[in-house]
Amino acid sequence: MIATFDIGNSNIKIGIFDDDELVQYVRFATDTRKTADEYGLQLMSAFSYSNINKEKIDGAIFSSVVPSINFTMEHMLRVFLDVRTVVVGPGTKTGMNIFYENSWQVGADRIVTSVAAKEIYGPPVIVVDFGTATTFNAVDAEGNFIGGAIMPGIKPSTDALVQNAARLPKIEFIDPGVTIGKSTVENMQSGIINGFSGAVDNIVTNMKNEIGGKVTVVATGGMSTLIGPVSKTIDKIDARLALKGLRTLYYKNIK
Question: Which position among 109, 129, 140, 238 bears the catalytic label?
Answer without folding.
Answer: 109
